[in-house]
Amino acid sequence: MNQPSRQVPLPRYKARLREGQQIICERFRVDNDARRLLQRRCRLVDDILRDLWHELELPASLALIAVGGYGRGELYPASDIDLLLLLPETPDADLQAQIERLVGFFWDIGLEIGHSVRTLDECLAEAAADVTVRTALIEARLLSGDETLFGEFREHFANALDLPAFFRAKRLEQEERYQRFQETPYSLEPNCKESPGGLRDLQMILWITQAAGYGGHWRELERHGLITREEERRLERCEGFLRRLRIHLHLQLGRREDRLLFDYQTALAGELGFSGSATRRPSEELMQAYYRTAKNVTQLNTILLLNLAAVLLPAVEQTPQPINARFQARGDLLDIVHEAVFDETPGAILESFLLMEQHAELQAMTARTLRALWRANELIDEHFRADAHNRANFLQIFQQPRGLVHELRRMNRLGVLGRYLPNFGQIVGQMQHDLFHVYTVDQHIMQVIRNLRRFTMHEFAHEYPVCSRLISDFERPWLLYIAALFHDIAKGRGGDHSELGTVDAQEFCDRHGLGPEDSELIVWIVRRHLLMSHVAQKQDVSDPDTVAAFAAVVGDERHLTALYLFTVADIRGTSPKVWNAWKGQLLEELYSATRKLLANGGEARPAQGIIEERQQDAMRLLRYFALSDTVHERLWKQLDTVYFLRHSSDEIAWHTRSLHYRIDEHKPVVKARLNAQGVGLEVMVYTHDQPDLFARLVGFFARAGYTILDAKIHTTRHGYALDSFIMQDVSGRDSDREMIGYIEHELAALLLVQRPPEAPASGRVSRQVRHFPIEPSVGIKADDRGARYILSISAADRPGLLYGVAMTLAAHGAQLHTAKISTLGERVEDTFLVSGGDLSESSGRIRLETDLVDQLRI
Question: What residues does the ACT domain cover (predicted)?
C-alpha cells in the first residue's frame, strides 16, 4: 500500500484550529455557557479530524473513534484528544506508516493526542484487563471510517461487559481516589476534577449509567427513576458550576491544570463574577461556592450509587427488620418506614444518626432516607433546637462508643449540623489564611474530633500510646469532642476566636443541661486551647518557673490531661506538615513536668533539688559506659545552674562522655547522634566562644539541608561555647545516619578556621506565602528576673530566615542563650532568650526590633 504523494496543507489546518478555538473561547466569555463551549470545541475537532482522515485517504476498512471525554462530546480548552484507531487486522508496514503519518499530522496542527491503535480482539482483551480502558470505551463515538467494524466493536464490547463487576470496580476506584485526597473536598487547594465532590464524581455515575443502558444525561436518569426532578436540577447546577470553573482555569493558564491553587483563585473569582465583601475576599466567596457545590455532589453521588447498587447488585430479598416505629433495617441500610417520617416527627432527624451509631450492623442509609433528611433539614428551627428530646439526642450522638466521626460528617454533608448549630453553619467552607491550616474551618474541626476518637481505639494505640493510655482513664471523654466542636467556631468573626467561642460553648452547655463541672471543662478548653502549644513551643519547658506558671493556669490533673489530649489532636488536625515527633516530645515533657508538680500539691520544687536529681540520673547513665564516679567532676565545675536546668539527664551524660577528657581542647569538638524521638539529629558543638558563632552554625546547618527545631546555647565558666541543637532534615534525603560523620567532620573543620559566616543558598518562597503574606512581628520583653530578654518573632517562612535573624542579633551584640524554633506550615514562630549588647537600653531594643522587622520582610 503506497502512501499518498500529495501534500497536506498543514498550515491551513493549524490556522483553522487556532482561529476556531479562539472564536469558541470568545463566545464563551460572552454567553458563559459551559456546555456550548465543550460541544463547540468537540465539533471543531471532529470536523478537522474527519477532513484530515479523508485527505490522507486512509483505508475504508479502518475506523477512527473518539473515546473518553472526547467520545462523550466534552472537550475542555486544554483537554487532550483521546482517539482509538480500530483495525480489522494487524497492520502491515505500509499501513503502520500511514497511521504514524496521520498521528504526526494531528500533533503538527496543534492537537494533543492520546491515541491507541488496536484490532477488535486487542480492544476487548485490553478492556477486560483494565477498568480504565473499559471506561474510556464505554463512551466510544465513531468519527470516520468503517461503520460495520464500529458496530461489531460496540456489540462485542457490550456483550463482554460484566455490569456488576464494572460497578464494583468503579466504586473501588472512587474509594481509592477519595483516599488520595484525604477523603475530603474541603482542602484549601482542591482539584476540581479529581477531589471528592469534583467533576469525576459526576462522570463516574454517568459511566455506570451508560454501561447499564440508562443513558448519559441527568434527564435520562430522572426518566428511569434513579433521581428526582429536584435532584436532576441540582446536578445540572453543580455540573454547570464545576464546568465553568474548570474552563476558566484552563483559559486563564493556557494549559491543562485542574488544581485550584492559591495562585489562581483570585483571578478565577473575578472571571466567575465574585466581587467580595467587607469581610470576605472574592477568592473566599468563590471557594465557599465551590465547597457548597462539592458537598452537594458528594451527597448526590452517594444517593445515586445506592440506587444503582440496588439495581445492578440486587441482594436476596429481605424482609425489612423493624427498629422502632420510625425506622427499619433493609439489610445493612437504615431506612425510614415511610416518606413522611421526618415531617410527622422532626426529632427523628437526629435519631437517625444516633441509630447509625447504636447499630453496628448498619453500614449506610438508604437513598430515600438520605433524600428525606436532605429535604427535612429546613424543619430544624428554633423550636426544634429548644426541644428537650432533641437536645438529649444531640448529646447522645457524642456519647456513643462508635461511629461519631462518620455521623458528624454525614450530618455536615446533609446540612443538619449547620442547621442545629447555626454558628457552625457559618464556618462551613470557610477558608483559613494562617499559613498552616490546610483545611476549611469545619473540616479542621472534624479532623480534631477524628484524632481524639482515634486515641480511644485500640487499633490506633501504637500511634500515640501516651494519649491512648490517658484517654482510657479519662472520665467522660465525650466532653472533649464537644470542646472540639466549639474551639474554632468563632473563626472569621473578628476578635479573639477563643474568647468568642467560649460564649457559644457556654450557651450550648446551658441549653443542653450539662452540669457545672462538665460545662466548666468544655468552656475552659475552648478558651485555653492554644495555651499548651504556646508554652511548649515558645517557652523553656525545662525551666521550673515556666512549668509552675503553666500549672497555676491548669489547676488540676483533669484539666491538664484534657488540654494535653486536645492539643495533640488539634495540632495534628491542622496539616500533615505541622505535626512532628519533636512537637510531641515538647508537649509530653511539659505534661509530665506539670503533672509531677500538681501531684506535689502545686509546690514548685527548688531548683537545686531538680539539678541534683538530673545529676544523679546522669551519673547512673555514665556507669553503663564503665566510667568512674569522678569522671564528670572537671567538666561539671565549668557548668552553672542554668545548664543543668535546661538539659535532660541523658543530654548531660552524653556531653560528659564526649568531653570529660578534652575540657581544654583547642580544636572544636562536634558530636552528632540520631534523635531518640525520631526527628533528625541531635548535634553538640564545643569550642572556644567566638563572635558570630550562632550565625555560622545556622548557615552550615542550612547548607547541609537541615532546619533547627531547638537550640540550647551555653557558655562555660572558662569561656567555651557548649551548644546543643535538635535538627530536622528538610532536603528529603532521609539519610540522617549517613550525615552524622559529615556534620562532625565538616563543621569542626569550619569552626577551626573561623571564617566569616556564610549565608545558606537562597530558595524559592512557597506559593502560599506569596498569596497569603503575613506581616512580620517582633516582640522584646524582659524575663521575670529582668536580666535577660525574651525575643519573639512571627513571619512567613523562607530560606535563610533564621540566618538573617542570627546575623542581626550578632550585629547588635546580643548574646543568645536559647532558641526555640517553631514552624507551623508556612509560618515560623521563633522565640529566643537573649541578653547584652544593645538590649541594655530602651533605644537599643527599639533599633534591634526595627532591624529584625526589616530583615523578616526581605
Answer: 682-761, 790-858
Describe the crossing of helices 478-487 and 388-399 by its angle, rounded to 10 degrees: 110
Cβ atoms of 8 and 52 closer than 8 Å: yes
Is residue 289 a contact partner of residue 274, using CB atoms and an 8 Å limit? yes
Helix 404-413 vs helix 441-455: angle between axes, to the nearest 10 degrees?
A: 170
* 3-class secondary-structure state, position 119: strand
Return all residues near 147 (Cβ < 8 A) that are at least 6 apart.
63
Select from 46, 64, 76 the least CA-distant residue to 254: 76
Fold of 630-857: Alpha-Beta Plaits (3.30.70)
Q: 164-314: which CATH topology?
A: Four Helix Bundle (Hemerythrin (Met), subunit A) (1.20.120)
* pLDDT tens-digit series, residues 532-572: 998 988 888 888 888 999 999 999 999 999 999 999 999 99
Please identify which residue in the block is written with the cell numbers 491550616. 437
CA of 319: how far to CAs of 314, 366, 445, 686, 755, in Å?
Answer: 14, 15, 39, 78, 84
- Three-state SS string over 608-658 comes to HHHHHHHHHHHHHHHHCCCCCCCCCHHHHCCCCHHHHHHCCHHHHHHHHHH
Measured between alpha carbons, how far is 255 from 391 in angstroms, rounded to an integer? 52
**Superfamily name with CATH number, domain 10-161:** Beta Polymerase, domain 2 (3.30.460.10)
CA count, 13 A, side-chain hemisphere, 189: 15
| 8 A C-beta contact, residue 389 and residue 346 | no
* Side chain identity, residue 277: S
Give yes or no for a contact between 614 and 646, defined as CB atoms under 8 angstroms apart. Answer: no
Domain boundaries, the chain: 10-161, 164-314, 441-599, 630-857
The amino acid sitting at 494 is: G
776 HSE (CA, 13 A, CB side) = 21
Q: In Å, how far are 90, 190, 773, 853 from 796, measured between CA atoms? A: 60, 22, 7, 12
Per-residue pLDDT tens digits for 461-495 = 888 899 999 999 999 999 999 999 999 999 988 88
pLDDT > 70? residue 39:
yes
Rg (CA), the chain: 33
